[in-house]
């Protein structure tokens, strides 16, 4: 799991999580950071998954398992595409909304789970 | 009007004679009588009395044409646009996250995503589903047949072909590959611009006369018009094909440093410190591998040199005992690795490829004169072919694989890690003159055979026989050289002994990568015997 920024700091009893977010006064709930890491690790270990990443509402990647330049490229492009897909669905039927986006290409399949604040992008190489 | 004096004389004469009787005769005596006379008057000439003499004249000016028009200056607004250099997006530092919300989001979507991943893994929905975005070309066809009649008239062969960096110009060198004697015949280097309208296949866009047979060509990697060539006399020349009147840029001249044998291959290399400038590496059968740099006044100066000496070859494979008196190993082909720019493979006259490095330090045991110290570059020797090697090619997709082809008609696929070849294929009963990997498909390569065919091999389809065999010459005269076009990947140019260059358009199966090719190539390379 690539965690750009500060190296992992040893776990302290004050409740700072393993990510190294040790700002005094930060109200990081113990274990939340671990939950995030474990969920992403579970997804990554699935059959055929090449990489995954979490992107925030502005298209800036927050967590990733790929290298920096690839991540930034995927995040920017897929964020725009997801917004376009969502507006397409809502234009056709305003009561409807986008729940999942899948792009299948010759080499692999990209899956995007959208949300109000975040996007989860998973790239899988399906068996052929 | 009579002047007043004469009138007054007549009047006074009439008065004096008393009237009418004077003219009648002299005898009658005049008698005074009363008569009234007319009044003699003189009109006044006084301006005022006469009155103003006037005539009435009138004139009228033509009517003036008038017209009305109005203009209004439009109001305009100015606007300017300035593109900004894109700010590289970087990842948010983790300290600014709100992990609670992130964890909640992941909890919500995780189940759905894992369900989809599983379904995808087991799905057969897309099996055999293929989408064609580009027009499919089913067969290989000949796009152009290019030749230069004066060179063909001299019976010259096409010895080497090169595409330029933009992929639009193909250049060929004319010479003879079957002459054993030292030849002094003049020869040509011709270039055709295939993108030009009105391309005349028998009229090259640029022709350069060279003093001796040209045996190899290489276009500059970034300058579309600079071309390096090696001659039968051992010289290396660099031309600028955009100046047909005076194309020669640099030459080595015939000094002590120059090769003493024909130069079989030239390659452009980036300079070690300034990667935008390039130097020329030349390989000849005198065993020397020389690096040249263009200095002012049109001279190519030797910067580094290597010599391949048989005593210094690593004994990783059993070689034939060399003939007495000869210690140099003639090198006929060179290929640089696309992954490690200082690593290269030399093909030799002894039939064994040699892995070499530009960074080798050991001095070569050779008595050849040279202005820079010659080094021994060999690091590993591979197991030999049955005859001299004419061509080597390093795979652009795998760092350890390379092909070599020679006069025994076999193509060997070697891995850098072992001396024995991974695959040995017999493609022809005659010589094989050139072998090249495809720049787009990791498992495809092409070979030029002495039977007049260009054979395309797809290791994915069949590892025994060629997928396509293109007949270039009708009478079976050999095809001496071939090159893929790395910009327009469906083009393949091949030159033969009849002096023609044929540009083939490959079918789509040779230009589009399949889904698992890189993995298959890795698997092939991993079959290294332990």
TrEMBL record, chain A:
Principal location class: cytoplasm
GO CC annotations, alphabetized: dynein complex; microtubule
Subcellular location: Cytoplasm, Cytoskeleton
Classification via Pfam families: Robl_LC7 (PF03259)
The entry's keywords: Cytoplasm, Cytoskeleton, Dynein, Microtubule, Motor protein, Transport
Region (Disordered): 1-35
Record-annotated Roadblock/LAMTOR2 domain positions: 36-124
Job of this protein: Acts as one of several non-catalytic accessory components of the cytoplasmic dynein 1 complex that are thought to be involved in linking dynein to cargos and to adapter proteins that regulate dynein function. Cytoplasmic dynein 1 acts as a motor for the intracellular retrograde motility of vesicles and organelles along microtubules.
Family in the record: Belongs to the GAMAD family.
Protein's UniProt name: Dynein light chain roadblock-type 2
Species name: Prolemur simus
Gene that encodes it: DYNLRB2
Automatic annotation (TrEMBL), chain B:
Domain of life of the source: Eukaryota
Keyword RNA-binding: no
InterPro entries: Dynein_IC, WD40/YVTN_repeat-like_dom_sf, WD40_repeat_dom_sf, WD40_rpt
Record's keyword terms, sorted: Cell projection, Cytoplasm, Cytoskeleton, Phosphoprotein, Repeat, WD repeat
Localization: Cell projection, Filopodium; Cytoplasm, Cytoskeleton, Cilium axoneme; Cytoplasm, Cytoskeleton, Cilium basal body; Cytoplasm, Cytoskeleton, Microtubule organizing center, Centrosome
One protein family per Pfam: WD40
GO cellular component, one term: filopodium
A biological-process GO annotation: cilium assembly
Coiled coil: none
Xref: SUPFAM superfamilies: WD40 repeat-like
A GO molecular-function descriptor: dynein light chain binding
Family according to the record: Belongs to the dynein light intermediate chain family.
Annotated function: Acts as a negative regulator of the Toll-like and IL-1R receptor signaling pathways. Inhibits the MAP3K7-induced NF-kappa-B activation pathway. Inhibits MAP3K7 phosphorylation at 'Thr-184' and 'Thr-187' upon Il-1 beta stimulation. Acts as one of several non-catalytic accessory components of the cytoplasmic dynein 2 complex (dynein-2 complex), a motor protein complex that drives the movement of cargos along microtubules within cilia and flagella in concert with the intraflagellar transport (IFT) system. DYNC2I2 plays a major role in retrograde ciliary protein trafficking and in ciliogenesis. Required also to maintain a functional transition zone.
Protein's recorded name: Cytoplasmic dynein 2 intermediate chain 2
Source species of the chain: Prolemur simus (Greater bamboo lemur)
Gene that this polypeptide is encoded by: DYNC2I2
């Amino acid at each position: 799991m690539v965690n750009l920024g500060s190296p992992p700091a040893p776990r302290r009893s004050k409740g700072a999580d393993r990510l190294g977010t040790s700002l005094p006064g930060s109200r990081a709930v113990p274990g939340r950071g671990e939950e995030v890491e474990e969920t992403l690790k579970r997804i990554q270990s699935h059959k055929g998954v090449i990489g995954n990443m979490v992107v925030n509402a502005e298209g800036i990647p927050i967590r990733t398992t790929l290298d920096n330049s690839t991540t930034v490229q995927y995040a920017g492009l897929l964020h725009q595409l997801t917004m376009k897909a969502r507006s397409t669905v809502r234009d056709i039927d305003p009561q409807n909304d986008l729940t999942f986006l899948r792009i299948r290409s010759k080499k692999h399949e990209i899956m995007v789970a959208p949300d109000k604040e975040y996007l989860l992008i998973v790239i899988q190489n399906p068996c052929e | 009007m009579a002047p007043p004096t004469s009138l007054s004389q007549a009047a006074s004469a009439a008065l004096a004679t008393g009237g009418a009787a004077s003219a009648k005769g002299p005898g009658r005596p005049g008698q005074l009588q009363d008569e009234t006379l007319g009044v003699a008057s003189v009109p006044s000439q006084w301006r005022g009395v006469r009155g103003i003499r006037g005539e009435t004249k009138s004139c009228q000016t033509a009517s003036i044409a008038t017209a009305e028009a109005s203009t209004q200056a439009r109001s305009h607004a100015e606007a300017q646009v300035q593109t900004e250099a894109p700010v590289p997006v970087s990842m948010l530092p983790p300290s600014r996250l709100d992990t609670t919300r992130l964890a909640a989001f992941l909890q919500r979507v995780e189940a759905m995503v894992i369900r989809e991943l599983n379904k995808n893994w087991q799905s057969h929905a897309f099996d055999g589903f293929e989408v064609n975005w580009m027009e499919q070309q089913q067969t290989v066809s000949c796009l152009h047949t290019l030749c230069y009649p004066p060179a063909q008239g001299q019976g010259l062969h096409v010895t080497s072909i090169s595409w330029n960096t933009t992929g639009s110009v193909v250049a060929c060198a004319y010479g003879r590959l079957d002459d054993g004697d030292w030849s002094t015949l003049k020869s040509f280097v011709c270039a055709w611009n295939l993108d030009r309208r009105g391309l005349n296949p028998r009229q090259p866009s640029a022709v350069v006369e060279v003093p001796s047979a040209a045996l190899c060509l290489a276009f500059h990697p970034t300058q579309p018009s600079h071309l390096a060539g090696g001659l039968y006399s051992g010289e290396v020349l660099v031309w600028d094909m955009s100046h047909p009147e005076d194309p020669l840029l640099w030459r080595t001249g015939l000094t002590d440093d120059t090769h003493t044998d024909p130069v079989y291959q030239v390659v452009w290399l980036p300079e070690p410190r300034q990667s935008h400038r390039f130097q020329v590496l030349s390989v000849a059968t005198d065993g020397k591998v020389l690096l040249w740099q263009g200095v002012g006044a049109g001279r190519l100066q030797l910067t580094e040199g290597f010599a391949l000496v048989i005593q210094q070859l690593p004994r990783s494979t059993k070689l034939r005992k060399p003939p007495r008196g000869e210690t140099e190993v003639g090198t006929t082909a060179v290929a640089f690795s696309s992954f490690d720019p200082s690593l290269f493979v030399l093909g030799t006259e002894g039939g064994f490829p040699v892995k070499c490095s530009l960074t080798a330090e050991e001095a070569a045991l050779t008595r050849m004169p040279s202005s820079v110290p010659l080094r021994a570059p060999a690091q590993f020797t591979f197991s030999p072919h049955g005859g001299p090697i004419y061509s080597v090619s390093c795979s652009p997709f795998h760092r350890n694989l390379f092909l070599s082809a020679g006069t025994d008609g076999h193509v060997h696929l070697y891995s850098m890690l072992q001396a024995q070849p991974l695959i040995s294929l017999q493609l022809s009963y005659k010589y094989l003159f050139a072998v090249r990997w495809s720049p787009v498909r990791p498992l495809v390569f092409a070979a030029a055979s002495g039977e007049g065919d260009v054979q395309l091999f797809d290791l994915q389809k069949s590892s025994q026989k060629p997928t396509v065999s293109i007949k270039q010459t009708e009478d079976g005269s050999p095809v001496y050289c071939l090159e893929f076009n790395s910009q327009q990947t469906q083009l393949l140019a091949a030159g033969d002994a009849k002096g023609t260059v044929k540009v083939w358009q490959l079918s789509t199966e040779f230009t589009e990568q399949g889904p698992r090719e890189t993995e298959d190539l890795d698997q092939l390379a991993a079959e290294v015997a332990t």
